[in-house]
Specification:
single chain; alpha+beta; six-stranded mixed sheet; five-stranded mixed sheet; 6 helices
Length: 221
């Protein structure tokens, strides 16, 4: 870990990629660690998923500015649950624009959550220094709106809650489409055959085996 407090842990997973982990108290699963991703290039950063609270987001924003010396170009919540956008207000108050799949904005508003600002329907490509990240919706799974982010330079995929850590259970299925879930992940595998590092929404990051594990977990038996 390159940074650790009771609310926030940051772990370096590649030269320009970091996982940020914050915690959410739940009735069914106890105190759950929730992951997001930070990717950097030439003093610019993009953040996938906010920490679970505004307090955690303030801490993360400060750390990125002071330790990485990066300007945050964007924050991208990967679905509408509060483990992805619970700390969105802090980003907006710091003048950091948020981008999300249009369905995520719709569902956040229906849920009376802080809604991301800029919606997209087609795959989004965001500039990062002299590089870029891609953000894309591949289909339903954990939710109707779950998207993934990809950083080609380091072949890092942020799968969010659509992707499970090895050994994980199916988790919360209240908004899930379990019939489509495996098909959606198969499409991700086809799109990114070179992926090296896969970061799930909860638990340990790994390699493309996490994609296979998730496909198997939700395959019709």
């Amino acid at each position: 870990d390159v940074y650790k407090t009771s609310d926030l842990i940051v772990t370096r997973i590649a030269e320009n990629s970091f996982v940020h982990t914050s915690f959410k108290q739940t009735n069914d699963f106890g105190n759950v660690p929730c992951n997001g991703l930070i990717v950097i290039n030439r003093d610019e950063a993009i953040v996938f998923d906010t920490p679970t609270s505004d307090k955690g987001s303030e801490e993360l924003i400060k750390w990125i500015k002071e330790t990485l010396h990066c300007k945050i170009n964007a924050v991208i919540p990967t679905h509408f649950h509060d483990d992805c956008l619970g700390g969105l207000k802090a980003f907006h108050e710091n003048g950091i624009p948020s981008f999300a799949y249009s369905k995520t904005i719709e569902l956040a508003k229906d849920n009376n959550s802080v809604a991301p600002q800029k919606g997209f329907r087609d795959p989004l490509v965001l500039k990062l220094g002299d590089d870029y990240v891609t953000v894309k919706f591949f289909g339903e799974g954990h939710t109707k709106d779950n998207i993934v982010g990809y950083f080609p330079r380091e072949k890092v995929l942020f799968g969010g809650c659509l992707i499970k850590e090895t050994g994980a259970s199916k988790g919360y299925l209240g908004d899930a489409n379990v019939v489509e879930w495996s098909n959606t992940v198969e499409r991700i595998k086809k799109e990114y055959p070179d992926v090296k590092i896969v970061v799930p929404g909860h638990g340990k990051f790994g390699n493309r085996k996490l994609l296979d594990y998730t496909v198997d977990l939700f395959k019709a038996r």
